[in-house]
Description:
Layout: H1 2-16, H2 24-33, E1 35-37, E2 40-43, E3 64-67, E4 76-93, E5 105-106, E6 110-117, E7 126-127, E8 132-133, E9 140-159, E10 168-171, E11 173-178
Parallel strand pairs: 5-10
Antiparallel strand pairs: 1-11, 2-4, 3-10, 4-9, 4-11, 6-7, 6-8, 6-9
Helix pairs in contact: 1-2
Amino acid sequence: MAFLAVLGLAGGVASANRDAIGGAPLRILDEILNDHKDPVLVASGRMDGREERLAGDGRVDTSWATTLKDAENANFLEAKFSTDIRLVYVFITGWPSKSVLRQGEKPPSKVLISVHHKGAKDTSYQNILPEIELPNDGKRHGFYVGADHVESVRLTVLDPKRTTSTKTVTITEIQFTGW
């Protein structure tokens, strides 16, 4: 019976990973060894009382917010780990639907996840996934990364763009897991 459970897990993990069966053993290890990480958060900017640490405090009643900049890839939240890790998941929690956003403030609707590998040039980031569209439903959404030797991960806000009505972006909660 245990063999069938492992076989079922391997098959499910292989299809979830979008890889061939060859990728299943590593994905199984990812699921078994996966653990919450508490990185230092750094941001492209912040508003008074809405520091980046609030996006990683485990609470949905606090958030990081920053004034949107017009330059390409200028709006980001970055996590720096104390040692290089295998980054397994990035979790992003949307704005709680029962909470009211401040005027001119929006949660991100489109983001890019990129990583900086140990030994890479300081400005070298590898995009892990294509642009991700985040639903505005207040739920926690997980994105499988599966990248080795990660020293930092950057969540770049691609949308919303700065407009006359939208001047600020906010992220309620971001979490990282790995081993």
